[in-house]
Amino acid sequence: MVQAIADGQTGRSRLGVPRSVPLLDYVTRVTEAAYRPTNEEVQRLRNHGWTEPQIAEAVYITAMFAFFNRVADAFGIAPQGYLEMNEMTK
Q: What is the pTM (predicted TM-score) of this model?
């Protein structure tokens, strides 16, 4: 799943993990508009078996990545090419 996301293949059929789809939808919403997630979206996660601590952890991780990206952008830190390096090890 991580490789599919890294490859930009976030179409639902490509991920092949139905339980993760609502979580990915939710963290996308948090990423794009953190003030907009609804109680219904959180309930959908619960309905798919996600616990409160798991949902909270997903929010924390999403927020940390957003923070790191903004700091790196603010200081003009160029991407390090880790995805490209991973391709070399295959």
A: 0.68
